[in-house]
Amino acid sequence: MFRSFSSFNYRVWFIGALVSNIGAWMQSTAQSWVVLTQLTDNDAGAMGLTMALQFGPPLLLVGLSGWVTDRFDRRRVLVVTQLVLLAFSLTIGILLLADAMTLPMMYGFALATGVVVAFDNPARQAFVTDLVNREIASNAVALNAASFNGARMIGPAVAGLLIVAVGTGWVFLINVLAYAGMLGALLLIRTRELIPRKRADASSRIADGFRYVARRPDLMVIFAMVFLMGALGMNFPIFASTMALEFGEQADGFGLLSSILAIGSLAGALLAARRARARLRVAILATGGFGLVSIASAFMPVYWLYALCLVFVGFTVVTTLTTANGYVQTTTDASVRGRVLALYVAVMMGGTPLGAPLVGWVAAEFGPRSAILLGAVGGLAACAIGLTWVIASGRLHRRQDERFRLTLDETRPLSVITRPVATVAPEEFSDQGAQTSAIRLVDEDDDDLDERPRRRA
Q: What's the pLDDT tens digit per position in 144-181?
């Protein structure tokens, strides 16, 4: 489960990311509560607009941010983005403490944060493959998700207590220290031990990532599923805050719901880390599970029963996202991985500007339970898309030896050769190298070596 920790660089990254994620969840909780209770009179629509402004730029800037991730040093890109985000948190905290923050100003900060995050997220996702060998990249992605959701257990609960005790402004200022922790980790990373990769040259095109995805129907299905989940199902700040108010809870009750959600999220991430590879079928089943448990949560009569349902909601969501992320990273060509990941992040986060205002309006007009049911529809629709593609592609068929048993073929990524020929980098093989090298293939089912002779050009 923790095999990626064998890398010093990944251990340093994991610790820095954990600290940063705790601060990010604290700030996210504080921001939602400020908009809902301090800058408006429990207006869920304003919260939805804030989320739309923050998550919209990754969709609009997807081509440029992906090109930057492939073209430039990812560690340096992350240092710049973290410094800018630190400055934003410091400014917002000071304005809140001075009682000078207004709703239009918060909208502006949300939009500016979204622009920076548009470059930060794909660089952060792709940087994982610079830290570990590709054989364990899926494990590293899953452990990143575990860090993210482990922080989700701590951050919102701590933020809720701090909001009640000292106010929201201090939460933003504490997050400044969390950004400093991430910057420290980035500076400690041993650059000489990073995995070699081919950077996109000046002639590389932004549209190459789009063309690559267009030739991969499996990736298009993953993107469609993630889009529906992001647009309708993953508006947890709206769901949790409005349900907390419906049950008569305050900021601490809202923060506790977010932390309880993270219990299931952490479990889903750790189970994903145990899997040898990311399977598309797991993501499809998880989206259906999300729809069902969301429906159940919408009918819970008391606070603690709703909180219990959130454990399963978190489990299904993170299983979906971690599996999808790992599948995209481990099956995408390294030369366009940054651009494809930028597109993935844009699809996942870009659904929020479209869905969050709608979900917020439904919560304001018809109540939070109706908004949760709308999110459940998104999960069930995502599952239906995945199942339809599996059946239409001919990958699902009846076994010849058993009449009533079905089997599912799957596309598996090629194994990486651990001892490449000559000076070829571990992830980058030229056509000449592939044509002139004798390669022994391993059957993943019985681990027997195929000793048939290979042609040499």
A: 877 876 787 788 878 888 888 888 899 999 999 999 98
Q: Full-prediction pTM beyond 0.70?
A: no
**Tokens 């251990």 — which residue?**
11
| Contact present, 122 and 69 (Cβ < 8 Å) | yes
Give the distance from CA 381 to its chain's centroid: 20
Separation of alpha carbons 60 and 349, rounded Å: 11
Separation between Cα atoms, residue 314 and residue 236, nearest integer Å: 10
State the Cα–Cα distance between residues 234 and 210, nearest whole angstrom: 25
Pick from 27, 126, 130, 137: which is nearest to 68 by CA? 126
- Residues sharing a CB contact under 8 Å with residue 161, sequence separation 6 or more, in sequence order: 252, 255
H or E element in which residue 129 lies: helix 103-131
Q: What does the block give as tokens for 306?
A: 């709703």
Listed in order, strand segments (DSSP E) in 25-142 are none
Q: With H, G, I as helix, E, B as strand and everything else as coil, classify residue 316.
A: helix
449 forms bridges with which residues in the sheet?
442
